[in-house]
Design brief:
globular, about 375 residues, five-stranded mixed β-sheet, Glycoprotease 1, tRNA N(6)-L-threonylcarbamoyladenine synthase activity, six-stranded mixed β-sheet, mitochondrion, alpha/beta, binds fe (iii) ion, acyltransferase, binds adenosine-5'-triphosphate, metal ion binding, 12 helices
Length: about 375
């Protein structure tokens, strides 16, 4: 089995070829980090143009590196949601045209299932059922993964995702965003005192597994303006030593509390999950899972509960084509594939994208078992 995976849900254009046994034959990512630096966020129209420019090259490069022709593929897997519909369209259009011309089956993949299942590629000993914490730019999810395609959602974010809070805070602090706000903030936090500022941990009195990062984000923002730092004007490199130290302290304090919130919610989710299924592992994935503090603290938490922990390597935590190709492999093996598009399908007519798409059923027993 050879599956090509295509990912264009946000700002990265990515493709990869993965073999049925999990061997990664190629991986190509073209990112638009300069957009974040220039505009401070992802603008759908601009991202769409970036994808449109990159997609053909990224896909042919992935096939070339893998040494495989389109006709040698078993199927094409592509992210159909959730994400920006303008962006999703570019990848889906490419997948439809490839599968139409070469008469290949195709597989529509849930982006967050990709983030979760890639852990089964990097850790072959990972067995269902397991608990997954997904922390990324757009999501915070706690899922009990029972089988491929069978998830129970224990918690989600009520407002912002943690990655977004990292990115916004990094921007407020005047950090260089060209390699992502999260990694820049993580680096600066190493120079700071994480107890310098005392932000309260979100939702301590709410006994469920949901997340909230908007309040923390706002408190940090208010603190920054009260310190009279004007990071959107002053880049960190222009800050004097004292100013830099304050920013590092804010970064470290923000990170401490953000990760404490993850620990709190995970701690409860582990107990919920254990009451439902014999879980043995905690998977932590999504872009923010490349953060060392996040990995370290959740490792301790998992150990405390007698669980193994699996975090994919950082390049497979952030958006990539491998996770989509691998999720395609998992679905392919179960026969969950779509037939090739009709030969007369116009290239731009496929509309079944899922920009908003919930993964799994929401757990209804939360309140009953709340501590
Ligand atoms: P989603 O998967 O929810 O659709 P996305 O695909 O945009 O969102 P990912 O690529 O999975 O998100 O992750 C990107 C996010 O991860 C960004 O918000 C980025 O700042 C954050 N991130 C990446 N590395 C780190 C790090 N070392 N520390 C903290 N955050 C990080
Ligand atoms: Fe993602």
């Amino acid at each position: 089995v050879y599956i090509l995976g295509i990912e264009t849900s946000c700002d990265d254009t990515a493709a990869a070829v993965v073999r049925g046994d999990g061997k990664i034959l190629s991986e190509v990512v073209s990112s638009q980090a300069e957009m974040l630096t220039q505009y401070g966020g992802v603008f759908p129209k601009i991202a769409e143009e970036g994808h449109a420019k990159a997609i053909d090259k990224v896909v042919s490069e992935a096939l070339f590196q893998a040494g495989i022709k389109e006709s040698g593929l078993s199927a094409v897997a592509v992210t159909i949601g959730p994400g920006l519909s303008l962006c999703l369209r570019v990848g889906v259009r490419k997948a439809r045209s490839l599968t139409k011309i070469h008469r290949l089956p195709w597989i529509g993949v849930h982006h967050m299932e990709g983030h979760a299942l890639v852990a089964r590629l990097t850790d072959p000993q990972l067995e269902f059922p397991f608990l997954v914490l997904l922390v990324s730019g757009g999501h915070n999810l706690l899922l009990l993964a029972q089988k491929v395609g069978d998830y129970i959602q224990l918690g989600t974010t009520l407002d912002d995702a943690i990655g977004e809070a990292y990115d916004k805070t990094a921007r407020e602090l005047g950090l260089d965003l060209s390699k992502g706000g999260g990694p820049a903030l993580e680096r600066l936090a190493l120079e700071g005192d994480d107890k310098a500022f005392n932000f309260s941990v979100p939702m301590r009195s709410v006994q469920d597994c949901n997340f909230s990062f908007a309040g923390l984000k706002t408190r940090v923002k208010m603190l920054i303006s009260s310190q009279d730092i004007k990071p959107s004007i002053v880049h960190i490199d222009e800050a004097n030593a004292e100013d830099r130290q304050i920013r590092a302290d804010i970064a470290a304090s923000f990170q401490r509390v953000a990760v404490l919130h993850l620990e709190d919610r995970c701690d409860r989710a582990i107990e919920w999950a254990k009451s439902m299924a014999p879980i043995r592992s905690l998977v932590v994935s999504g872009g923010v899972a490349s953060n060392k503090v996040v990995r370290e603290r959740l490792r301790n938490l998992a150990e405390k509960h007698g669980l193994r922990i699996t975090c994919p390597p950082p390049r497979l935590c952030t958006d990539n084509g491998v996770m989509i190709a691998w999720t395609g492999v998992e679905h392919f093996k179960l026969g969950r594939i779509q037939p090739p598009p009709p030969l007369d399908e116009p290239d731009d007519c496929y509309l079944d994208l899922r920009p908003r798409w919930q993964l799994g059923e929401i757990y209804a027993g939360g309140l009953r078992t709340a501590r």
